[in-house]
Amino acid sequence: MGIVFGKICVETPKYKTIQSTADYEIRKYPAAVMAQVTYDPIQFKGDKDGGFKLLTNYIGIFGNPQNSNPEKIAMTTPVITKSGEKIAMTTPVVTKSDDREKNTVTMQFILPATYTKCEEAPKPLDERVVIVEEGERKYGVMKFGGTASEKIVIEKVENLKKLLERDGCNIIGEFELARYNPTWILPPFKTNEVRIPVE
């Protein structure tokens, strides 16, 4: 019953809190290995979470894992979503000009901390799933509950940007959405975060 009320019972990434305010935190995350898929939601009838099934197939949540070993991999949280649609920032950022990427979504599963290098993770059988390493990184993070609708996420991102800029933080990339609970969790008990990379 606890899962319906949003209790998080799986591995979450470790981080160090650099700064904490009433509205947001600056966090430093260690390097991590991730399984990711980048796709156009049109492939999944407009579903921005369409890559979720590809990733759960890879780790073997609902059946035989679709990887080279085959090895079941423990689910972790949060699920990270990055949109190819850019939200304008006042600080210069590097963007890709390829129009095909404007509507893409990248979804990531952070693999358990036992995997420290890409080559340690089983190879995905579906070529759309790729294993990547992300180095140590720092984010401004704003936590919020409820359903992470597109409208709410954009409001939170804009608010976080303003707070970071007000406090002299240098924004160096696009936002990420981190969701900690399955879709069936009651909205008041959901945990979400918007994260913006900073120097």
Automatic annotation (TrEMBL):
Top-level division of the source organism's lineage: Eukaryota
TM ranges: none
Pfam families xref list: SOUL (PF04832)
InterPro entries named in the record: Reg_factor_effector_dom_sf (IPR011256), SOUL_heme-bd (IPR006917)
SUPFAM superfamilies the record matches: Probable bacterial effector-binding domain
Family: Belongs to the HEBP family.
UniProt name for this protein: Heme-binding-like protein At3g10130, chloroplastic
